[in-house]
Amino acid sequence: MRSPCLLAAFAAILSAPAVHAQAIIAQSSGLPSPDHVIDFGANLFPNFTNVSTQFTGITITHSRYFTTSVANNLVGGFLTNDFSGAPDTLSIKFATPISDLSFVYHQIGSGSSNFRVLLASVEVDSFSNSSNQFQTNNYFGFTNVVFDELQVDFVIDFNLDTLAFNDAGPAVSAYCTSSTSTSGCTASISGSGTPSASAGSGFTISIAGVEGQKTGLVFYGINNSGFIPLPWATGSTSFLCVKPPTQRSLPQSSGGTAGACNGVLSIDWNAFITANPGALGTPFNGTETVFAQGWFRDPAAPKTTNLSNALQFAVAP
Q: Which CATH architecture has domain 176-314?
C-alpha cells in the first residue's frame, strides 16, 4: 500500500514533462538499458559472509553473501538475510541519488514484504507485495522517483540479486499529502523547467487547484534530513512537509473564481533566488536539493490557512 503521507506523486527528468512515479511489482524483467548493474558476481566471498561496503557505490545493512548456480533469476552471488534479529529490514543506501531501480527478489517466508525508497531519510514511495521464491515474475523496483535508499521489510528470509539503476540527474518530484480546503479544493504542486544556480530564470513552481481569490505564497527549505511531516494544526487536513528554517516568496493572489478550485500560485524559483541574493541557501552552487510547498488562506480552516503537498528538486549548476 502506498504511504498516505509521503507518497511520491510523480517524478520527472526536468528536460521533459512531468511523469508519474511507478512501481515495478512482480514483473518478468527489470529496467531496460540501465546506467548501472550490480550483479554481486559469483564466489566473491565465502557463503554467509556479512556484507556492508564491499560493493562500490552502495552500503548494505542486514545481509550476507551467498553464491548459487542460476536459480529463478538468481545468477551467481546474491544477498540474503544475516539473521541478526529484528527489525527484519534490508537497507541498501546509494552513494548518490538515483531515479529508477529494479532487482530480483525472493520472499522466503509466507507473508507480505514491504518495499520503500527514501531520499535524505524521508520516504518518497512504497508498496507491499506477497510473493515467493518459486514464481518467475520476481522483478521489483521503482521508477520515475528520486531516492538514495531502498528498504525492504522481509519475512524470515529473502534473496536479492541484480540491482539495476539509473542516475537521477537534475530531477523534481512531488511528495507528502495536500490538504482539502473547506471548499473541497485539493492543491497540487508541480515544477517545470530546470532549477539552476546560475540561469536566472526557467524553473516554475506551480500550485494548481487552489481556491480562487485567495492570498498565498510558496516557501522552501534546504535540508529535510530526518524530518517527518507535521500536522499543520489540530483538526487540519494539512501537513507541514518542509523542515524549518524556510524562505517565503512574496504573497500573491491565486486568481480564479471565489469558491471554485481554479486558483493557481506560481513563482519562477530561479528568478526568485537571482533577485534575492540573501535568500535562504544562496548562493546555490548546483549540488543542493530543495524542498518547496504552497501556503494559502482558508479562513474557515484551523489556523485559517492550508498547505499544498510538497516538491523536492535537485539544483543544477
A: Sandwich (2.60)
The C-alpha atoms of residue 22 and residue 13 are separated, in whole angstroms, by 14
Q: What's residue 168's pLDDT?
A: 79
160: nearest Cα among 43, 242, 223, 66: 66
Q: From CA 302, how far away is CA 278, in angstroms rounded?
A: 32
Residues 6 or more apart whose CB falls under 8 angstroms from that of 138 comprise: 26, 72, 73, 104, 105, 106, 131
Domain positions in the chain are 11-167, 176-314
Q: pLDDT digit string (tens) for 140-149?
A: 999 988 789 9
**SS3 (DSSP) at 1:** coil
CATH class, domain 11-167, is mainly beta
- Ramachandran area for residue 41 (φ above 0: left; ψ -120 to 50: alpha; else beta): left
Residue 18 pLDDT > 70, yes or no?
A: no
| Three cell numbers written together for 178 | 495536500
